[in-house]
């Protein structure tokens, strides 16, 4: 307790050092804690289930002729047909040595109606083995089991997520056996999942869990349960205790290859010998599944690792600054340490006391860092899409607080150890005999301080160059020609099919919506599309085109969209030849299509000559191409424009959901308020989905680029500021320690300019060495991060030149004041300086 009181007293005696140290640590620890929060949630955190390390995710890469449907749970290498899942499940039940069982799941959009309240949410189709294999228990009632998915389309039961139960139903225990209408079908609520369990897909938070055999009812028109060429189910398994992935892999592929060769190979049509050989050689792959299944794991790994590394560098620079401050302070406390040592205090005791002061600084910095972390998480929340905000926890969780606490202790020891050892060095007599008890710092300490500042400059140079690369990449992304006009366009989606609308009723509603929105003040044009533009959605199919020779192993796939009249004029996509769709293009009229430039080039259609040619999607040339449009981005801002064709949505008899676009003559803010009121008038139970401006949609599409660009720049500027402060501190201390030397030089004839040059040369030497090392490190960062850059390589001479200019300016600015102070030293007073 006495040591702690002394530590508080010594920190209070040096308020400037204490304040600078705490602020530096707060910024460094806070930034690290905020990024750790995201890193932990998205890359480290295991599922809250029983023995998650025994879970494995299944994938089956290779040829998959037929239809493939994949989503956030993973890419199309990871989806299986429903019959294949049942085959593997039956084998596990018959006695797989390596697997305790398998489970299947599939996300789906859900309109949920209960007690005259309808919301648009998310559901998860699960096999009867899903909950039992995970070891999840119910918070209320029971969970779904094997008895709930024995037959197709007959099990009208559902389990609620704990979050939905609490937030929407008030945690009412009486909900059991009540009816919840999901996508127009009354379902009996049989239970509530345990608190904290949000499914097995990062980025998705299902509100309800429904038997997988009910997919046909949840997604109208689906009929893929018996089709082995329809791939849509995600699978995971649980290994038996003591079984390795390699052992399980050998066992499951023995079964899988038998099914592929004896059953499924015979079902393939039009396949070349080479593709058939690859099909027969397909194998299942297994990956650890303790974090669940999600494509986000791969997408965010590199960006988050990079940001985590950058914040770590910022903290290292902060630690170097504080170490320099403590070294300078330690030199002034050398006599105190010497006297205490001569009175019997052992060196270990003195070091422990100084480390206690360092750790106390770190604790204060960590507490302040929690405020910085909270603010940083709030800033991240303002950048990322609303959907991501709902998925992530952007508040301070216990794991984040624990991380900040651990980081505080580690940094306290890191920046405090060398100053503590140096200040308690055993040359007591030398210190006691120093003039007036104010000995100058040892040469070793001076070299150490200079080395720390040089390292800070190197790290700052590396971070600034990296930030420059990411900012230029973000600039390149923002300048991409989208091929359309995004300003003053509002977009939203409706899914009446999820409310039980029949196809005819859906078409009538869509027409009413277009008419009502078009009548709103300020609206100039309105249209709609099946696939929302720049939303990450990709819908594709194989096509036949007049004059294009197709066959085995020939790529004849194209993306498609179903759109309404005026779609191209609403989005500002230029028509190059032919016509747009009109109200006359509806059910019962000849099928028509509009294609983009890339489609025409891929399939050998010469520009405007494409108009009047025929194409088809079912081996028949039954769709006339009536228009050619300029290329425009489809799914991703950073992807090349794919070959794309458009058909009128009004010629689709079974369309149940659409995304609408309304262009206004002014700011779209008023439209964002007016559209929900229009939909409530038409159907109060139909929720409006994804209401936003098209400009916001584009920003959401490049959110990772924006996060990396903004935060890498912010952290790099922070690192540079800290490095500048460190450089200023070292030079100021050096000038103070060399006052007598400077006075002697000036007494012997050195003028003020020469003295300034002497100090600035020290600045230049450290900056030059640190800059060169930093540039080399930046080139390495650029190579490693090249996959995150757009429209450029991992190096850029212009960026390096600008950073060199900036850092040189910071260094000169930090060094000028100490250099000017040195040049104004009075030789007479300096020679008397102790």
SSE arrangement:
Layout: H1 2-13, H2 15-44, E1 55-59, E2 67-68, E3 79-81, H3 82-95, E4 99-114, E5 117-126, H4 130-134, E6 138-141, E7 157-160, H5 162-169, E8 179-182, E9 185-193, E10 208-211, H6 215-218, E11 230-239, H7 245-264, H8 273-280, E12 285-288, H9 296-332, H10 334-342, H11 347-383, H12 386-391, H13 398-423, H14 428-433, H15 443-478, E13 489-494, H16 503-518, E14 523-529, E15 540-542, E16 544-545, E17 557-563, H17 567-571, E18 575-578, E19 592-596, H18 597-602, E20 614-616, E21 623-629, E22 644-648, E23 658-664, H19 669-682, E24 689-693, H20 694-701, H21 703-737, H22 739-747, H23 752-784, H24 797-823, H25 827-831
